[in-house]
Design a protein that fits this description.
alpha+beta, three-stranded antiparallel sheet, Rubrerythrin, domain 2, rod-shaped
Length: 95
């Protein structure tokens, strides 16, 4: 078969690049959804691990003057801030 006939036959069977792109996007949609779900679950697990490592308490005692700061729910040390009595910044959790 001469190449000119082969080229003419292939030119008649054109598939536009938009059709190819659309089909590729369609086939990748489930894979993308699965990967996004995996990422969300991994992010959630990492956040849970970080939260577990943070020490939280409803009561924090100033190491300098022993004044106890109370909270309505467990909070990390950074939330305790400064002691209102001595202005110290070092607190320890009261168990």
């Amino acid at each position: 078969m001469p190449t000119s006939i082969y080229v003419r036959m292939n030119m008649n069977d054109k598939v536009s690049s938009t059709q190819i792109r659309f089909m590729a996007e369609k086939s990748l949609t489930p894979l993308k959804a699965i990967l996004e779900t995996i990422r969300e679950r991994a992010d959630y697990a990492l956040k849970q691990l970080q939260d577990a490592q943070e020490e939280r308490s409803m009561r924090w005692r100033c190491k300098d003057c022993r004044w106890v700061k109370h909270f309505t729910r467990p909070v990390p040390r950074e939330v305790a801030g400064k002691c209102p009595r001595c202005k110290g910044i070092s607190f320890e959790a009261v168990v």
